[in-house]
């Protein structure tokens, strides 16, 4: 399959060399067992790939978003699922941008080495969903501790992380000028929290994605675990979204190329009516169409990276890259499944697994409608709808 050459071939080759040690059978077995790809994540961590965005002074490799996105893309392109570990790559950005010097000195080197995993981010709540400023989880300062009460849902990788960044309301919404004010973010020691005040209830779901409901009952967090200023947490979370969206776009692009490569090979070999099914234009065209869409998403991904790495505003490009890539990988998955016929449903072909995995990105970490709403309001100047 021809794809445009880029300047990241060295990174691609190195990540591929690692991923090749974890073939389809490995990911298939982990999926069937609903297990965590511990060995795969450990190997990526040991090789330093998940510390790509951590500056060298803290033990990371200080690479840009473009390089980091290529790492995520290659993981998914190899048949793996970066969703098991992408939090380790981007959650630390919040700490890097807004944490105190003491926090950065303490946490970042340990995250870079993999000694600590900061894989979890607790934002979504069951009763408020996408309307984040209405969250009901509260954190009240009592002496040198914040006391947290409330509930979260869909919080991922809690059982495979040491720390979580938690968003909670520290000032009631009725007492702030803007609804986006009065929320704060905290570093939560997950193992300690499980022993006193936090209950974790795993959610069985469509993909092998470890995600949970969390219940907080008087969970105490040391005041020094507040990141940045009290009341500014929502803004800090928003600051991290452009990187997250661009990296997720790259994962979708990796999925897209995986689907296209698989269907290209299968359709060229599968003979029905005396010729390869790929000889029929009814089969060729949907594959060609998704290839065009993945390539277009790829360009938008690199545009977002270029702006981000140049410290320029990139909200529009990051959102559009995520939208295009999630749509393209879904369409590529659909074509791949369709032209595998019945075999698309057989686990041993891995298509159904990747199909389920890539579908998630239309909903999380941001749903497609929220991106359309962003574009409508912020880029097209259409009236605000909520
Ligand atoms: C596997 C998985 C892992 C996740 N991991 C995490 C995590 O680690 N941390 C975390 O905090 N969250 C996580 N999430 C939550 C995820 O970010 C949310 O599910 C997502 O943001 C949508 O929120 P919701 O489910 O409450 O949907 P709702 O807000 O209830 O929305 C439902 C649907 O309605 C649409 N909708 C809602 N309002 C509007 C509107 N005004 N206009 C148009 N459409 C609208 C939405 O786009 C969506 O498609 C995860 C979710 C899943 C499924």
UniProtKB/TrEMBL annotation:
Cofactor: FAD
Domain Acyl-CoA oxidase/dehydrogenase middle: 120-218
Domain Acyl-CoA dehydrogenase/oxidase C-terminal: 231-379
Top-rank taxon, per record: Bacteria
Segments forming domain Acyl-CoA dehydrogenase/oxidase N-terminal: 6-115
GO molecular function terms attached to this record: acyl-CoA dehydrogenase activity; flavin adenine dinucleotide binding
Keywords: FAD, Flavoprotein
Pfam families named in the record: Acyl-CoA_dh_1, Acyl-CoA_dh_M, Acyl-CoA_dh_N
Database matches in InterPro entries: Acyl-CoA_DH_CS, Acyl-CoA_Oxase/DH_mid-dom, Acyl-CoA_Oxase/DH_mid-dom_sf, AcylCo_DH-like_C, AcylCo_DH/oxidase_C, AcylCoA_DH/ox_N, AcylCoA_DH/ox_N_sf, AcylCoA_DH/oxidase_NM_dom_sf
Family: Belongs to the acyl-CoA dehydrogenase family.
Protein name in UniProt: Acyl-CoA dehydrogenase
Natural source organism: Ramlibacter lithotrophicus
Organism taxonomic ancestry: Bacteria, Pseudomonadati, Pseudomonadota, Betaproteobacteria, Burkholderiales
């Amino acid at each position: 399959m021809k794809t445009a050459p880029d300047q990241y071939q060295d990174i691609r080759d190195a990540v591929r060399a690692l991923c090749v040690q974890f073939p389809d059978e490995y990911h298939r077995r982990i999926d069937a067992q609903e297990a965590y790809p511990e060995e795969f994540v450990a190997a990526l961590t040991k090789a330093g790939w998940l510390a790509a965005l951590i500056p060298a002074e803290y033990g990371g490799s200080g690479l840009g978003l473009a390089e980091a996105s290529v790492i995520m893309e290659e993981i998914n392109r190899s048949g793996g699922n970066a969703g098991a570990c992408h939090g380790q790559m981007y959650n630390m950005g919040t700490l890097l941008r807004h944490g105190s010097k003491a926090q950065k000195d303490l946490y970042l080197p340990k995250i870079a080495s993999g000694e600590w995993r900061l894989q979890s981010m607790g934002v979504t709540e069951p009763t408020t969903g996408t309307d984040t400023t209405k969250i009901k989880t509260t954190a009240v300062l009592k002496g040198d501790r914040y006391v947290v009460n409330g509930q979260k849902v869909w919080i991922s990788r809690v059982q495979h992380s040491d720390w979580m960044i938690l968003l909670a309301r520290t000032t009631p919404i009725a007492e702030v000028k803007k609804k986006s004010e009065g929320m704060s973010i905290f570093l939560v020691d997950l193992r300690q929290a499980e022993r006193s005040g936090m209950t974790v209830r795993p959610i069985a779901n469509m993909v092998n994605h470890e995600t949970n409901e969390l219940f907080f009952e008087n969970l105490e967090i040391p005041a020094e675990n507040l990141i940045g200023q009290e009341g500014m947490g929502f803004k800090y979370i928003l600051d991290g979204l452009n990187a997250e969206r661009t990296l997720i776009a790259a994962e979708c692009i990796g999925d897209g190329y995986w689907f296209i490569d698989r269907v290209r090979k299968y359709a060229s070999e599968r003979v029905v009516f005396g010729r390869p099914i790929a000889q029929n234009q009814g089969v060729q065209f949907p594959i060609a169409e998704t290839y065009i869409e993945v390539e277009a998403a790829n360009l938008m991904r690199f545009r977002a990276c270029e702006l981000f790495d140049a410290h320029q505003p990139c909200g529009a490009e990051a959102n559009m890259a995520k939208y295009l890539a999630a749509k393209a990988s879904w369409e590529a998955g659909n074509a791949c499944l369709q032209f595998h016929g019945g075999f698309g449903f057989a686990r041993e072909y891995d298509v159904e697994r990747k199909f389920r995995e890539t579908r998630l990105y239309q909903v999380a970490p941001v749903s497609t409608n929220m991106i359309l709403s962003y574009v409508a309001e912020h880029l097209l100047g259409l009236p605000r709808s909520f």
